[in-house]
């Protein structure tokens, strides 16, 4: 049994038992059931109350004696007798059950809507009749006055099929098309038998079965709290005028049938379709459920009464009539049974639950695993068990791991063998200090925060002295004597670090406030001692207080300046240590053929190149055949490019040089020819004139 409390409402999970990890094998579980007393003592209210794989829907007969559940796999229906607390019968079906209903007071008349469009009728002995509807059905309702079944189909039609039990085999089904939308859910009012269906477009259409005409249309999508077009996923009548509508986006809308506006809108905040709606008339509550949570809330105010959140997803919820018990069909083999004493008493077939819950009210059970310890990765590092990650000894769960409690205790004892001795000494010391409280108390400074305690003692003495001088004055209680602040002077974790940045920045303000407080106490003491003091002498104190208000600003600035200086010194020291720890490894470079070695420290040559003009530097580079690029502003990076020529180009240049040398040797001077020709021309010219 698992006990939880939500909003101060006790909830008992009767099908929980002792928590067993899911990774244990079936053989290990059977061994624990034989050896563990707690597992043997767990409550199994109804024997074998489970399905092989999944339970899709669950209902209780009108007489309250039988609980029927549909599930898979294989598709089947199980009936449990509450008077015998065991399984009465089990019947397998051809297809999965979409919805089913109990037509009689007991289990003698059942009808099943299957996923293959078949509608199957069962009597007390078993299968009775089977027929097929034209479209895939999603839900159906039974009209008791006319013995008709109304099916909501997954197409643009809604089908009406008369179902007279006395002539079921001889009559042909009558189908009537009177809807134009896809129908998800439907329900019939138990008072005036008005039929309502919820569509995929977010509408609720109401029909009168007597005339087979639509009498009302309600657009619920406009009243929802979100944007979009939510479809109707649940529908339930309560009395003659109330109706609850559940949407696919997780809202529940309560309507009065005389108005098209909702009285109340309740949001589950999970954005999941509402799967079940039920009313608890005794306390005016609504029980709404989606796949994650069951919420119980007041239908008038919307205030949350309680909530249930099972481990597996929810498919259906059924409330046992006139009691505080409810059953849930889950995406899990086990069907949960919850008992809430605040909703009502236990059913008469399990009345012992009332006495049992009264005994367990003062001793709630723990919901953690008793045989396993949850540890984080940091805990594993402290215990030295980081190498076990990924092994079978650790099971990953959320942000940590589960490990065997015996292994945890053994490793913890080995990691700190004196932990128990230290714990024992601390307990003995606490007992001795408690016994000394009855003796005469002497003012003694605590071991933690001595300066703060001394300051508080001095302030307390001043206040006590001032209160003693007044006639009706009473001293305020000191922080040292208050149990709420006792840990601050006992636990070393609360030690004030006076060298921290926060303390140094706040200390000038706190010290000035303390000085002003002491000065004020002295003035009040003087006023109490001298009743005839004149008021003229108070101006100087006010001026001094204004000077004190300005002085702490300078102290804070000085502290900030010192902190910045310390940070710079600390960073400089860290850089020096990093340079000192850095090991310089020499790097060797190979000079290629045809290159000239240049010194790395040839600063004069670099300065000369920097002072030279661009034309001179280009001429020097062309003359040397090497292009040098030096960027001294970025760290004196040097890039060297060597102009390489092909063998053919070198042979051609060498042939041209040889040809020029040969021509120079054979060259003859023709200067005299040019000078004689000039003189002759000049003479002839001058002679003509």
In short:
The protein is an alpha+beta fold and 689 residues long. It contains 13 helices and 33 strands.
Task: Provide an overview of this structure.
- With 689 residues, this protein is α+β, with helices and mostly antiparallel strands.
- Among the domains are: 2-362, 7 Propeller (Methylamine Dehydrogenase, Chain H), CATH 2.130.10; 370-433, no CATH class.
- The protein has 13 helices and 33 strands.
- It has a five-stranded antiparallel β-sheet with strand order 1-2-28-27-26, with no helix packed on it. The chain has a four-stranded antiparallel β-sheet with strand order 3-4-5-6, with no helix packed on it. A four-stranded antiparallel β-sheet has the order 7-8-9-10, with no helix packed on it.
- α7 (450-469) runs parallel beside α8 and α8 packs antiparallel against α9.
- The longest helix has 43 residues, at 539-581.
- It is extended.
- The termini are far apart.
- Mean pLDDT is 77; it is low at 162-180, 532-544 and 677-689.
- Belongs to the WD repeat NOL10/ENP2 family.
- Residues 548-580, 614-624, 644-664 have a biased composition (Basic and acidic residues).
- InterPro entries: Beta-prop_NOL10_N, NOL10/Enp2, NOL10_2nd, NUC153, WD40/YVTN_repeat-like_dom_sf, WD40_repeat_dom_sf, WD40_rpt.
- Residues 368-416 form the Nucleolar protein 10-like second domain.
- Residues 524-588, 614-689 are annotated as: Disordered.
